Amino acid sequence: MTQPFYKICPTCNTQTHPDVMFCTNCGGSLQGSPVHGAQTVAYQQNPTPAQPTYQQYSQPVQPPPMYQANYQQPIAPYQQPNQYQYQVPQGYVAGDKNKVVAALFAFFGGPLGLHGFYLGNHQMGLILLLSNVVFLPLTCIFIGIFGYALVGLVCLAQTVLYLVASDAEFYQKYVIEKRWF
C-alpha cells in the first residue's frame, strides 16, 4: 500500500492517516509512531487483528474526588403537579348531577336559566332569567335582539363546556365551585 504520508501501527502493522491517534484496525495507540514519507513499505499484516483488552471492574466506578464532595443521590424524581387534574370527591354519587342533562337545559332553556337552577347555581339562574325579562320589552327597538343574542352565545358556550368536561371536572367546576365557564 502506498500513501504520501502515513503512520504504521506497531501492533498490527496497518498504515493509517498521519493525523489519527489510534489505529483504525486494532485500536492501538499511534502516539509515538513516526510519520513516514512517500515510499513503499513492505509489511506483513496479521491475519487476525489483536483484540482490545478490557479492564474488569469488581466495584462500581466512583466519581473523581473533586466531584464526590458535592455529589448526592437524587431523593425522588421530580414530577410537575398537574393543575388541571380533578379528583372525584368522596361523597360523589354518579347520578347526582348529569352533565348531559345540564347541557340540554343550557341549550334549550338557557335564557330562562334552567341549567343554573339545575346545577344549584341560583345566582346564574336568576341573572339569566332577569336578563330575559329585561330584553323582552327592548326587542321592539332592536336593542333586545342583541341582548338575546349575547345570552344565547353564553348559553351555547356553556353547553359545549359541559359536554367536553370529564365527569370529575364537571362536578368540581360547575357543581361545587359553581363557575359560569
Structural commentary:
The structure is a single chain. Among the domains are: 46 residues; 78 residues, no CATH class. 39% of the residues lie in helices and 4% in strands. The chain is built from six helices and three strands, in the order βββαααααα. The protein has a three-stranded antiparallel beta sheet with strand order 2-1-3, with no helix packed on it. The longest helix is centred in the C-terminal third of the chain and has 22 residues.
What is this structure, in a nutshell?
Residues 96-146 form the TM2 domain. By secondary structure, the protein is mostly helical. The chain has helices at residues 65-68, 99-109, 114-119, 122-138, 143-164, 167-176, and strands at 6-8, 15-16, 35-36.
What is the average per-residue confidence, as pLDDT, rounded to a whole number?
A: 76
Summing up helix and strand content along with how strands pair, one would put the structural category as mainly alpha
**Percentage of residues in helical conformation:** 25-40%
DSSP helical segment count: 6
Instruction: Kindly report the oligomeric state of this protein.
Output: single chain
Percentage beta strand:
under 5%
Report the major sheet.
Answer: 3 strands, antiparallel
Name the overall outline: rod-shaped
Distance between the termini: 80 Å
Count every beta strand, where a strand is a DSSP E run of 2 or more residues.
3
The side-by-side strand order for the widest beta sheet comes to 2-1-3
**Can you write the helix and strand succession as a string?**
EEEHHHHHH
Radius of gyration: 40 Å
Low-confidence stretches: none
Membrane topology: Multi-pass membrane protein
Pfam families: TM2
Protein name: TM2 domain-containing protein
Keywords: Membrane, Transmembrane, Transmembrane helix
